[in-house]
Amino acid sequence: MIHQAMPDQAAPARSAAGDPALTDALQRIVGPAHVITDPAMLEGYVADRTGRWRGTTAAVVRPADTAEVSAVLACCHDAGAAVVPQGGNTGLVGGSVPLHGEVVVSTSRLTAIDNVDPVGRTLSAGAGVTVAAAEEKARRHGLTLGIDLASRDSATLGGIVSTNAGGLRMIRYGDTRSRLLGVEAVLADGRVLTRWKALTKDNVGYDLPGLLAGAEGTLGVVTRVLMKLSEPAGETAVALAGIPDVGEGLALVRALEHAGLIIEAAELMTRDGMRLVGDHLRLRAPLDVDAPYAVLVEVSGPAVQQDALLSVLAGRADAVLDAAVEHGPARRLWQYREAHTESVGVASSTPPVKLDVSTPLSRIEAFLGELGPGLSEHFPGVRPVCFGHFADGNIHVNLMDVEPAQQEAITDHVLRLVARHGGSISAEHGVGRAKLPWIALGREPVDLAVMDAVRGALDPARMLNPGLFHWAAAAHRGGDGAVLGRMLPG
Ligand SMILES: Cc1cc2nc3c(=O)[nH]c(=O)nc-3n(C[C@H](O)[C@H](O)[C@H](O)COP(=O)(O)OP(=O)(O)OC[C@H]3O[C@@H](n4cnc5c(N)ncnc54)[C@H](O)[C@@H]3O)c2cc1C
């Protein structure tokens, strides 16, 4: 089901967004060329890549710097026009799509990389710089951004901050929030908030950059970021191993650490997912056995990695069913993992339902063990493909061939199972529109009320991304009929 713009109580219509006087005013701020109103050109801004979310907007505004973002937001605020911030539009939960006619503020011109400080190991850059461009710049100084995801060529620094992206290297370098030292952001009324200290230790007051990280554009428009850089891995080696169960995958990761190797990445795939990628890319099966699961691990460290990796694998020969090993970057092996999203999209007869969740490590096996049979029983015909950064407890549950009428019920089924296993309904993609009705499965009523108060303090009129984090829409009935979460005024 494609979610179209439709009036609802959560996001009151802001008719001012289509007001010609507002368009004129925005053009005076950023120049006529940077206020897009041509329907053909708006197309790329009003729909997301999953095909699940499509909205409308009267205008996409592309400011050139923080001062212009500030003037644009003040102008929209005074006109009563709501705003959706948008970076690379690679988000997977519908947060960057203007579902209610909001003005889109795009960061596509905030692409200056101001500075790399190789001594302090920081990078300061505009929010519209892509992850790939920031990484390339960092590498020129022998350093790494530490955040990497398959959407790297389009996803922006402002986007990864606003979703607190995890990604392929989180096990090694942490999530985006942990790498964010400073931020410049424009609040809903146009005021500019700057917390910009290239310090690892700075305990003066609340962690405001940390608060903006993961706020999904509801607290401010991030315009510049100060990111921590790290020493990149030297020589690396990659193994793709067929294993009988998730427990063996975790045991393998532990054994590699025990051998003194540094885990650069650890990814889980299933037999079905491997087949899907093989069919889509016309690749030969990388292993001689048809194992139920495959793990991809990339390691570095002072030891001669490939030898150390081989010796750990040999030591677990009774459990590891087969393995292929390559020197890093091992793009041939990595493509089995990185092509999952694309392969799922191509193979599904309907836009796939993507549920990015996490469970405690000790519960992954039980969660997956219940997920498959439960889906077969209640949703026959739906094909699940699970993969993800499993050593962080993160599984991307991708559901193919879900009929539009089944979407809500199947999401409910999976997210309740996650909650029963003590997990999180959003590991790294955010809540967006996709999971809003289930947010109370992940947060207590007082927690929701505190978050609502924070938002109210910064944006009392809910002008920024009004369709998100709207707790009134979040109250959800439990299986026993109990309301989970409390209705809050919107
Ligand atoms: C192939 C593929 C692989 C992916 N892999 C991963 C992965 O491994 N890990 C992961 O975490 N995610 C992954 N993603 C999801 C996505 O790339 C991330 O969520 C990314 O951080 C979004 O960045 P963006 O610039 O595209 O943001 P957008 O999609 O434009 O926006 C995402 C959200 O952030 C807000 N936002 C964007 N920019 C700003 C800003 N400057 N100020 C305030 N709010 C803003 C938007 O309003 C929206 O709510 C993947 C996506 C794809 C398509």
Automatic annotation (TrEMBL):
Domain of life of the native organism: Bacteria
InterPro entries in the record: FAD-bd_oxidored_4_C, FAD-bd_PCMH, FAD-bd_PCMH-like_sf, FAD-bd_PCMH_sub1, FAD-bd_PCMH_sub2, FAD-linked_Oxase-like_C, FAD-oxidored/transferase_4, Oxid_FAD_bind_N
Gene3D superfamilies: 3.30.465.10, 3.30.70.2190, 3.30.70.2740, Uridine Diphospho-n-acetylenolpyruvylglucosamine Reductase, domain 2 (3.30.43.10), Vanillyl-alcohol Oxidase, Chain A, domain 4 (1.10.45.10)
SUPFAM superfamilies membership: FAD-binding/transporter-associated domain-like, FAD-linked oxidases, C-terminal domain
Coiled coil regions, renumbered to chain: none
Keyword annotations from UniProtKB, A to Z: FAD, Flavoprotein, Oxidoreductase
Occurrences of domain FAD-binding PCMH-type (ranges): 53-232
Cofactor(s) needed: FAD
Assigned protein family: Belongs to the FAD-binding oxidoreductase/transferase type 4 family.
Database matches in PANTHER family: D-2-HYDROXYGLUTARATE DEHYDROGENASE, MITOCHONDRIAL (PTHR43716)
Name this protein carries in UniProt: FAD-binding oxidoreductase
